[in-house]
Design goal:
Aldehyde Dehydrogenase, Chain A, domain 1; four-stranded parallel sheet; globular; Aldehyde Dehydrogenase, Chain A, domain 2; about 425 residues; 16 strands; homodimer; NADP binding (chains A, B); alpha/beta; 2 domains; seven-stranded parallel sheet; NADP (chains A, B)
């Protein structure tokens, strides 16, 4: 497979826009048939995909990528079958477009209808995992949107093979294959070009680490749906139940440390800590959680090291945790406001008033009282499909399902009405 | 009144953010009381405002501003009373925050509630009219948001006096006066600083001409609610009723030529034009509409001048109109796609299928079949209050009421749930 770096990003974005006009008038059935056909074709041609994936894996080994990274990159017949099943599952979801949000008639007889419609063209910028190539395509097509895919360079052979297989599949459906565009370049300039395609791309969705997302937010003129960075806190209040606090902390920290809804900092009330330090220290030790604490914590938790600004501000995405001791709820909320990323924040307490204050004053997509932050997830909440977890306030906040890929039109039907 | 250019934009934005935390926990009643009190104080202190306005008017006369501009700038006792009434009207609207959008309980007992909450801090960047200072403040406070106001330099004395009066008023209410910040500077650098206050300002709303809006969209890292530029088209189809077509065209063009939902271009089917040119020519003449046409039009409409790219692409905001003759609906839609600003577009036709195609394929906030584009307006549609007309697709599209100033939080109540 030859990877040209002379891609024409604008031409591809324009093709996507043109295709989106054909796609947006297809029926729900035509879109679902196409998704199911794509699923079949992916399963049938899995060997093509695995051969391309082998090239990426060889490159990865050469570059000495970590085992965890190689695992995310690596495909198998079973993983391809999972992609296919994902498309079939999406085909079964409710079509988010064509829904009448509200309608009314003015006194002069003008009929007003506010209807959901596709956004048009989605630009997806993502890192390692090749599954995003299929997942994002499925969600885009289901919601009547074309998609421009720009994956990470480490998976470029796999991604390109997947798109080529999907293109062959689309030729046998009502969806024009130009509705799925793949930017076959490892050149950063191509990504920067995408940022400016305001005429042709309706929204950019970055999926990946904080640096990628920051680059998109700062440089894109295309509107952005910001996803993912979660520097989540568990605040254990003075009135926290010991068992709940420890269960929630351990679960939020260790269940899947590398995901965005995992806990990164424990904020703990000094009184609770002094009463329950033995139980906490035992739980941390048992679960191999490494503590980076403030001065107060260093004296209490054996083996802890001093936390610096980086510890408070960034995600570990490992079983490390930052621990801050506070005198009261106000200090806890102030710490979360300074360092939180507005993703998911939890309070553990038996005091209803403290929970209420926490809910009112902490500015985040998801707030928890006596539960693990791990529930901020489209799957766990029963959304059927998740495009990402929005950490912004406009358009969509928190876990985003298919409706986040739609906008509205006001349709006015008259008989000659004027003002 | 001394106008310092050494304003500290960041300090003001931070003050607004801090105040927003106090504001967002006030009750609906407390907010409404404050709005009504502000209305009383504005009426009581109208002379202070008029004295400051006189300075702006004197500056304006010196600079030779147009009559229309001076009219928008000019205040009177009656206009101040209208501002006050606007605040009272807003106080009567439904509180858009604290509404449960949806709630459900997971199998494990975790209760999930999606609730509307204020955005936090709104940054309003606007041009001449001082009424925006009051209107925007009223809408922000009603929805629980703090506001940072940056008005045009031509109205800076009026705006500052209005804010000072409101500050005095707020001191007698539960809303901290820091919730209303006024950037008292005519320096462009101050506006540019606002663009980057992502930490403290949650959304920027530009109100004014295309250049202002473009500058905000291109330079802001704060999310933007894009409003207002309307290069609106009336497409008169082959099967258009003559009377409806002419009434709608004349109304959309001449009722209020300077507003964003006024028509700027007539796209007309050649067959209809040839059958109905006498009626059209008479109507254009009677209403003093100056025609800038393509080659085809020049031969048909007496007195028309040749349109260039600027005519197709920009708003006249006057009784001038661009006129393009087309062979069919497809050509009409293509023209609108090239030059439209996704605001309001109309088709006049008795053919239901053409109307349906127009509705499906034209990408705009509001589409009209046999009615004037002038109805794209929060007032005309019965929204009660309008923050602006969004021409973007994310968050809010078309006329925006109070809900556009809110976001959501997912509130999760558990009893120790973990994954």
């Amino acid at each position: 497979m030859t990877l040209t770096t002379n891609v024409n990003v604008e031409a591809q974005a324009m093709e996507a826009k043109k295709a989106s006009k054909k796609l947006m008038i297809l029926s729900e059935e035509e879109k679902n048939q196409a998704l199911n056909h794509l699923a079949d074709v992916l399963e049938r041609e899995y060997e093509t995909i695995l051969a391309a994936n082998e090239k990426d894996l060889a490159n990865g080994r050469e570059k000495g990528f970590t085992d965890a990274f190689m695992d995310r990159l690596s495909l198998s017949k079973e993983r391809v079958a999972e992609f296919a099943q994902g498309l079939r599952d999406v085909s079964k979801l409710e079509d988010p477009t064509g829904q009448v949000v509200t309608d009314w008639t003015l006194e002069n007889g003008l009929q007003v209808e506010k209807v959901t419609v596709p956004l048009g063209v989605i630009g997806m910028i993502y890192e390692a995992r090749p599954n995003v190539t299929v997942d994002a395509t499925g969600l885009a097509l289901k919601s009547g949107n074309a998609i421009v895919l720009k994956g990470g360079s480490s998976a470029i052979n796999s991604n390109q093979a997947i798109v080529e297989v999907m293109h062959r599949g689309l030729e046998e459906t009502k969806i024009p294959k130009e509705a799925v565009q793949f930017i076959a370049s490892t050149d950063r300039a191509a990504t920067n070009e995408l940022f400016k395609m305001k005429e042709h791309i309706d929204v950019l969705i970055p999926r990946g680490g904080g640096k990628l997302i920051q680059a998109v937010v700062e440089n894109a003129t295309v509107p952005v749906l910001e996803t993912g960075v979660g520097n989540c806190h568990i605040y254990v209040d003075k009135h926290a139940d010991v068992e709940k606090a420890i269960n929630i902390l351990v679960n939020a920290k260790t269940d899947r440390p590398a995901v965005c809804n995992a806990a990164e900092t424990l904020v703990v009330h000094k009184e609770w800590l002094n009463d329950n330090k033995d139980a906490l220290i035992a739980a941390l030790k048992e679960n191999n959680i490494a503590v980076h604490g403030d001065e107060y914590i260093l004296d209490i938790i054996p083996g802890s090291v001093l936390a610096d600004e980086d510890d408070w501000a960034n995600e570990y995405l490992s079983t490390d945790i930052a621990v801050k001791a506070v005198d009261d709820l106000t200090e806890a909320i102030a710490h979360i406001e300074t360092y939180g990323t507005k993703h998911s924040e939890a309070i553990v307490t038996e005091d209803a008033e403290s929970a209420e204050t926490f809910f009112a004053l902490v500015d985040a997509a998801a707030l928890y009282h006596n539960a693990s932050t791990r529930f901020t997830d489209g799957g766990a909440l029963g959304f059927g499909a998740e495009i990402g977890i929005s950490t912004q306030k406009l358009h969509a906040r928190g876990p985003m399902g298919l409706p986040a890929l739609t906008t509205v039109k006001f349709l006015m039907k008259g008989t000659g009405q004027i003002r």
